[in-house]
Amino acid sequence: TNHIPDGYPNAGLDHGDILVVKNASRNVIEGNIFSRGGHNTLDIIGSYNVIRGNSFDGKWTGTDSPGARAGGELSASEKFNVPGPRGFNLFEFNIVKNANASGDQSTNYGMKVQGLNQIVRANYFFDNQAEAIGGATRAGFIERTQHNRIYNNTVYRSGSLFIYRDYGYDFPFNDNVWKNNLVAGLQQDRQVVINFTTLANINGDTSDEIEDTTIAGNIFETGPGGAAAVLAVKVGDTFISDTFQAMGNRYPRNVYDNGTA
Questions:
Q1: C-alpha distances out from residue 131 to 64, 85, 135, 226, 242, Å
Q2: Is the CB of residue 222 less than 8 Å from the CB of residue 228?
Q3: pTM score, two decimals?
Q4: Is the pLDDT score of 244 beyond 60?
C-alpha cells in the first residue's frame, strides 16, 4: 500500500508507485496483492519480466481519497539508453480492478501497455473507470508502440477494451494484436478507440489506414442502452466510428471474426 495524501506537496502529480522495475530483466513477480497506489501499483520498464497471478486493486475507502491511475504499466521506454531488445514482458493470470479517479485524472485505465513486444493474456479486468487497457507514444519516452499481443482476457464493467493516444506525435503504432478477448458490461459505447497519426500518413499511403493492427475473434457485449459495439479509429484529422461488422468490411485484413452479444 502506498498513498500520497491530499494536500501533500505535488500530490496532484500522482506520485507513489508501489513497485517500480527499471532497466531490469528476467524478474518474476508472482502471487502478490498490490493495492492503493498513488500513481501506478506496478511500473515495469525493462525486458523479459514475468508478472503472473497478482491482484492489483486501486480502490481507496472514503470519498476524499484518490485511487490508483493504473494497475500495472508495461513499457519499453526510450528514456533509458539500454542496449539489446526491449519489451517481451509477460503479464498473465492477473486481476486488475478499481482503477479510479486520481489527483490529475477523473478516470483511469486498468493498465498501460506500450513500447515493444508486450504480451498480455488471460487476465481479468473489472470495475475500472476508464478503458481496461491504454497505450500511448510520447516524444523522448515511448516513441514506438509495436508488436504487442493482447489476447484471451476478460473485461467486465470497465470503460472499454482499449484506447491508444498518440498525443500529436508521428510515431509508429503498428503490428499490435487484440484477439479472443471477452468484453462485457461496459460503461460506454465505444469498445475500442485507436487514435492514429500513423506511418500511413507520413508515407502518404492511405490504402491501409490502420496498418498491421489486428482486432479479431473478440466478443463484445452491446453498450449501454443496447447500443452496438463500436470500433473508433482516428487517422490524422479523420475520425471513423462504426460497428465491428462495418469496420470489418472496410478493413477485412485487420478486423474480422468479432462477435456481439
A1: 23, 28, 10, 19, 18
A2: yes
A3: 0.83
A4: yes
